[in-house]
Amino acid sequence: MTIVQPIQIQVAQNVFEAWDKLGVIGRAEKLEKALAAFSDDQGKMAQWQIDNAKREIAETRVMPEPTGERNELSCQGRGSFLCASLLNSGSTEQGTETVGLVGQIFTALIAGNPVITVGQAGQDIMDKITPYVAEGVIQNIADSALDSLIEANHLAGIATLCDEAQAQQLNQRLAAKGGLICQLIEETDCENLSTIAKPHYLLRFVTERTISNNTTAIGGNATLLELGSMDD
């Protein structure tokens, strides 16, 4: 049976490679243009996530090996991310909730992932970012479409503000579905946003990529290994 993916997933998949290939610095140049449209607290959160990405994942790390090969370690996005708040109205201050949602969206974007937001809160954030990124890099769906998007086979991850019970239920739901393994990145400390504020939070939105180049002549590795095993 052919599974029809939501149109938002198809659009996100089409733009994923081009957005990811811009690299952290290229994406930062575009996203930073949107910061002036956000409130002070929201803008500070977005800028912190951008700056953290520049520190943590922008540089390709070269790891030369004693046998001659050259290994390059870098990070790339995982794919389409859904960013949404599942909090009940009044469960936390609206300002804090929006700051958290901004943090999740900017983290997913700067990491190289296209983002799908939900409802009016997501629409408001999307409208501020859309003028500065390619079409499809950030999209929005209605609240009523949330369940169908969660079930989509090619959704790479969900970043959400929720309570612990909601996180457990969503984890069980994602574990039971087929298709691509969908990463759940939850923030359950919705008053202090302690998870979103950690430098390693970003690493849950990326996957590592290693490129190995063998720069030795034929048989060179074996010769070097033999030399290395000889007694002085």
Average the pLDDT over all residues and give the rounded result.
87
**Radius of gyration, in angstroms, nearest whole number:** 21 Å
Number of H/I helices: 8
- Unreliable parts: none
Portion of residues in beta strands equals 15-25%
Overall geometric form: globular
The tally of domains stands at 1
CATH topology: Aldehyde Dehydrogenase, Chain A, domain 1
The CATH level-2 architecture is identified as: 3-Layer(aba) Sandwich
Oligomer: single chain
CATH top level?
Alpha Beta
Secondary structural class: alpha/beta
Helices and strands, in N-to-C order?
HHHEEEHEHEHEHEEH
The amount of helix comes to 40-55%
Q: CATH superfamily, called what? A: Aldehyde Dehydrogenase, Chain A, domain 1
Layout of helices and strands:
Layout: H1 7-21, H2 23-31, H3 40-56, E1 61-64, E2 69-77, E3 81-85, H4 94-110, E4 115-118, H5 119-129, E5 138-141, H6 146-150, E6 157-161, H7 164-176, E7 183-187, E8 206-214, H8 220-229
Parallel strand pairs: 3-4, 3-6, 4-5, 6-7
Antiparallel strand pairs: 1-2, 2-8
Helix pairs in contact: 2-3, 3-4
How would you summarize what this structure contains?
The chain has 232 residues and is an alpha/beta fold. It has a single domain, classed as Aldehyde Dehydrogenase, Chain A, domain 1. It is built from eight helices and eight strands; from the N terminus they run αααβββαβαβαβαββα.
Protein architecture, described:
With 232 residues, the protein is α/β, with parallel strands linked by helices. It has a single domain, classed as Aldehyde Dehydrogenase, Chain A, domain 1 (3-Layer(aba) Sandwich), CATH 3.40.605.10. It contains eight helices and eight strands; from the N terminus they run αααβββαβαβαβαββα. The strands form two sheets. Strands 5-4-3-6-7 form a five-stranded parallel β-sheet, with helices on both faces. The longest helix is centred in the first third of the chain and has 17 residues. The radius of gyration is 21 Å and the shape is globular. The mean pLDDT is 87.
